[in-house]
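## retry 2 of 3
previous attempt timed out at serialization; input unchanged, resubmitting
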Amino acid sequence: MPIHAIQPSFSGGELAPSLHARIDLAKYAVGLKTCRNFFVQAHGGVANRTGTKYICETANSAKTTRLIPFEFNTEQTYVLEFGHQTMRVIKDGGQVLSSGSPVSITTPYSDTELKDLNFTQSADVMTICHPSYPVKELKRTSHTAWAITSVSFGTSMAAPGSVASSRQEYDSSKTETTYSYVVTAVKTETGDESVASSATSIANNNLSNTVTNTITWAAVTGANSYNIYKSIGGIYGFVGRATGTTFKDDNIEGDANDTPAIARTIFNTSNEYPATVNYYQQRLVFGQTNNDPQKVYMSQTGNYHNFNISEPLRDDDAVTFTIAASQVNEIRHLVPLSDLIILTSGGEWLMTANDGVITPSSVQIKPQGYRGTADAPPLVIGNTIIHIQSKGSIIRDLAFALESDSYTGNDLTVLSNHLFAGKTVKEWAYAQAPHSIVWVVLSDGTLAALTYMREHEVWGWSRHDTDGTFESVCTIAEGEEDATYFVVKRTIGGATKRYVERLNTRVFTEIADAFFVDSGLSYDGTNAASTTMTLSGGSTWAHTEILTLTANASTFVSGDVGNTFVLTIGTETLVCTVQAYTSATVVTVKAGRDVPTAFRGVATAVWSKGVDEISGLGHLEGKTVSILADGNVEAQKTVASGAITISHPASKIHIGLPIQADLQTLNIELGQPTSQGKLKSISSVTLRVEKSRGGKIGYDADNLTEFKQRAYEAYGTATSLKTGDIRVTIPSTWSIEGSIFYRQDDPLPMTLLA
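## retry succeeded, writing output
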């Protein structure tokens, strides 16, 4: 008697072979044996990944390159291509050019040092750390204007000069007292205060509210006010503030608890450069130098380059502390959440304050665990940290747990540890919209993807590959999605090439817009101008008649013979094939069908040009490429002299390296008594799909049946995308596995729901 079974979800992702017998696990029912070049969707389905669009070759293909995101706001976002001692800029899927050449600046970092860069950003300024170099700032002043400079630490305000003092007349019969003063300049809006000026002294034996000392100084550029300090037993205490350059002391008592800032020399020699950086509570925070791997340095509040202190310390002074632990573990990352999370090579630490506000005297450090963290920067997803354990092949999340009053988390790789066996995480990035995916570049050049939604307890892994190896990844907000960029190392014509490529969007409505090729380029002949086309010269207007097609602006070239122009009026389209070239505005054509009345002598600006020869593919020279032309799959071609020829002209063409996407279910389990180890024969499979087309299915990779979808589409149009159920009869065989294998190796979309 036939038995019907359903797998309603694939949210478990690809499970490790060591779990293929664990039918007791909840993840088994929603897991897969193979999830290759598919990714798990948060609601349970799987979709084959889109292709990558070719952007450019890196500045130096012989050297490694790292991609770093730079985000000023939701519209001004960039991908920075850091190469060997150089940096270039990419925006919205293209290189930023100046006078026709890529915008490029020189940096001090060699290709082997790029992996150790740590960075944080505030508005148009990115602070970059490397343990072998002084701290740098990368500043953007426009799309094409970028500069990298070393940071000068300390106050930005100069100390007042020409400080002098004078007195009123006094009673010469009294013993004289000498009074000493110093002055500091203050930028009121930031609170940035200079160090003290040179001291000035004056003797006075009758200082009072009527007999005063007058202190003067020269104005300081940028200063809004000045603080005056008077010596008290050798300590200068605050006596007052002036907005001008004069102050009168009428025997004011100084405050010894409020003293001038003391200049600190910091981060200015080798082995004293910090390795990591971030912002927390309006302070710039650095961690780990070669000499002090467990030390944290926090700037003054609001003054990010100022690490000066006072004696005694003030609440807004710089904060410096060392994590006291049984082992000396270097600080690798600083992560600001409601508290500051400090991730070291040997453990996880929480920095808090007694009253919630960080001051030099309020810092508390609490251990949260002792698993340690690798060099790759952690990711923050909502209020959860995703980090890599110190050995580099286990990924964990870390979030606050109310029941334990500490930060704790899960091993996210335990169910798919085969993807990481013998490998380490090289780089990773998180694309929140639209699918909440962490893209992970592994040390062997493969790519893993984690779909992660902690609030719904969803995490599922998939693996991805291409004709080459992945070396770097970053994500950046672009429009309504987070765009994912890769550096991919490929072999082209026997030479090593490194390309920057962008993962294409999966949001499309027409099959002609589906982009499922790697390192690909597109041709789009859609008219984007106001040029109109008019069809004339017909008598019977039959499809066999030679007609005249006229453009109202120079459009045609002699090479257009054999190309097509597709005219659209309302909901109707008409394909016209060029027979002969007359001029830049006139060609003769044949229509693909009898010409409807709507097209006779009527001008339309809605048209597209179809071609059958596509050039500009030199970056794929000698490679076999897949082609989708007007939504139809063309036979694969080999790129020669940077070009290919397809069988029929098309106005939307996508060309690139083929992607093979495979999905295989786990051995079927029907409940008690178990079906494991028993012979089974599967005769038909129903796929519940969404906006999908094509593919092959069977009981293993060597026995696949291609299924057809074409139904009621008009002649000459592409097969439509399918949403619903597709039932496929497959050659049955008896086996104990009872698993299903699906493959998509055409450049077409597949979203499998069940």
